[in-house]
Amino acid sequence: ILITVLICVGSRNSSEIVMAQKQICPYSLF
């Protein structure tokens, strides 16, 4: 879970990753 959150927080500079991470962690509001 910590790794997933880390990716979500660090993916705010990559729109493509954000869209992919939304499927894993919907709470990534970045």
TrEMBL record:
Q: What is this protein called?
A: NADH dehydrogenase subunit 1
Which keywords does the record carry?
Mitochondrion
Instruction: Please tell me the species this chain comes from.
Output: Petunia mantiqueirensis
Instruction: Tell me if Mitochondrion is a UniProt keyword of this record.
Output: yes
Has the keyword Mitochondrion been applied to this entry? yes
